[in-house]
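Structure first, sequence second, as always.
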């Protein structure tokens, strides 16, 4: 908790949304997080992932979701839950959300490949049927064509008025991290400084914004 308090004080003012992985906090005290949240005045996104999802939570699915429900009740703006979460647990989460102003992000991660566009569309539709407010698709990008698949998915969602977050993982995924937010990806993930990257392909926030500025300038060149 002490590390979290320090990072919130130093990093939250620079972020648009603060993402907190509950499963990574050993001495978790949720009430204290919201006490620290008050002066920050930024939206909070809570994640609580099991090892199969790349996280550290070792309890039951019910306990995993219960922490997210508590976060919603305390005022979380966003919570992220895996598409593969047991339906009964997910339904409890959806019911709890209806009494709050929070939004549910239902996410799909594939750390091995980027599936076909048709398969990704079917995953988005599944998430929407499970009452997702926002769908997150994060896949490993092995080549440039995978970036085109993710860009096409972003455009399709925008055309159909779906809120979607699209993330290309891995070094080859840098292109999608740059382009997809420009084409409607609801949210982007960027480390706040060089050296604080937590995964391959992440682009520090300042550099990402510089690239976007250059793209915007190029658009206006005659």
């Amino acid at each position: 908790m002490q590390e979290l308090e320090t990072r919130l004080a130093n990093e939250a003012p620079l972020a648009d949304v603060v993402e907190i992985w509950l499963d990574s906090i050993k001495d978790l005290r949720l009430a204290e997080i919201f006490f620290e949240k008050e002066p920050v005045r930024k939206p909070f996104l809570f994640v609580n992932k099991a090892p199969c999802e790349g996280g550290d939570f070792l309890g039951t699915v019910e306990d995993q979701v219960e922490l997210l429900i508590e976060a919603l009740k305390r005022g979380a703006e966003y919570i992220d839950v895996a598409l593969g979460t047991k339906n009964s647990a997910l339904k409890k989460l959806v019911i709890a959300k209806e009494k709050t102003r929070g939004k549910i992000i239902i996410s799909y991660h594939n750390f091995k490949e980027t599936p076909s566009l048709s398969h990704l569309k079917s995953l988005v539709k599944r998430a929407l049927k499970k009452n997702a407010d926002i769908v997150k698709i994060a896949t490993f990008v092995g080549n440039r064509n995978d970036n085109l698949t993710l860009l096409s998915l972003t455009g399709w969602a925008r055309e159909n008025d779906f809120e979607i977050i699209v993330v290309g993982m891995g070094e080859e995924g840098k292109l999608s991290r740059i382009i997809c937010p420009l084409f409607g990806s609801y949210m982007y993930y960027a480390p706040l400084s060089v050296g604080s990257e937590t995964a391959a392909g992440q682009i520090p926030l300042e550099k990402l914004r510089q690239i976007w500025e250059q793209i915007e300038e190029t658009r206006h060149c005659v």
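Margin note: The chain has two domains: 1-101, 107-222.
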